From TrEMBL:
Taxonomic placement: Eukaryota, Metazoa, Ecdysozoa, Arthropoda, Hexapoda
Organism field: Bactrocera latifrons
Gene (UniProt): SEC14L2_0
Cellular component, GO, one term: cytoplasm
Record protein name field: SEC14-like protein 2
Cited Pfam families: CRAL_TRIO, CRAL_TRIO_N
Superkingdom field: Eukaryota
Length: 262
């Protein structure tokens, strides 16, 4: 298994058993790296990994994932969801920036259904995964994981105390954990106000220990995130308004051409 992490003989046996048990539902893109994500998520139990993968494939069918690019998503989602794929880290992993402080979830959920909101997030994840998969052809399978940067300045906890918003967040977290195991390479949450910890302490109960290990939170005003982030992300591709050096082709340090809703 070239470019793969070292695994023990017992783990390799589990991988072979898992591959055989799901051979009826996987295709040529589902290589050892893909299968290992599900095995690790279920502590190397092939039967539990099979159950997880089959359940995920049913969920993908429900979301009609293979045809999501044909979906005419609501304008509010296309224009007002704050995110941008700004480049790739030194291993080829996609780097996504989310200026979350501008996101009005109360307004969004009055414009679109929760189902459409979550479906659009699935579409974005699939796009980011495809970008990582293309990068992995030259950088190796480690490029298939995502680096995510959230700016939480002026986070409005009151909006997330609204029941529909809280339910949407929790449902989204559960969907992510069930269907995208070990996708996260690193998540940097910066400018987190004190009240953010209240919300996060509630959400983290639904996060897998692997996901939790990849999330780093920095309080409002701290720049301690720069050293770990820029150890693998070139500051020359990172928006200047967030502490990098990049300005877009319009000379804009907020890089609105790449990151929406700044």
């Amino acid at each position: 298994m070239s470019d793969m992490p070292n695994i023990s003989d017992a783990q390799e046996t589990a991988l072979k058993q898992f591959r055989k048990s799901v051979s009826d539902v996987i295709n040529e893109t589902h290589d050892d790296y893909f299968l290992l994500r599900w095995l690790r998520a279920r502590k190397w139990d092939p039967e539990a990994a099979e159950e997880m993968l089959r359940a995920s494939l049913k969920t993908r069918a429900m979301w009609n994932v293979d045809n999501l690019e044909k979906w005419d998503a609501p304008r509010a989602l296309r224009e007002y969801l704050p995110y941008g794929l700004i480049g790739y880290d030194n291993e080829g992993s996609p780097v996504i920036v989310c200026p979350f402080y501008n996101f009005d979830i109360w307004g969004m959920l009055h414009c679109v259904t929760r189902f459409d909101f979550q479906r659009y997030l699935v579409l974005l994840l699939e796009r980011f995964m495809q970008a990582g998969y293309e990068q992995s052809k030259t950088h190796g399978p480690q490029a298939r994981q995502l680096v995510v940067f959230f700016d939480m300045a002026n986070f409005n906890l009151k909006q997330y105390a609204w029941r529909p918003a809280a339910e949407c967040v929790l449902s989204t977290v559960k969907q992510y954990e069930s269907n995208y195991p070990e996708l996260l390479k690193m998540c940097y949450i910066v400018n987190a106000p004190k009240l953010f910890s209240v919300a996060f302490n509630f959400v983290k109960r639904f996060l897998d220990e692997y996901t939790m290990s990849k999330i780093k939170i920095y309080k409002n005003g701290s720049d301690k995130w720069k050293e770990p982030l820029f150890s693998h992300v070139d500051p020359n591709i990172f928006p200047k308004c967030f502490g990098g050096k990049y300005v877009d082709e319009n000379g804009d340090p907020e890089c609105k051409s790449k990151v929406s809703r700044i």
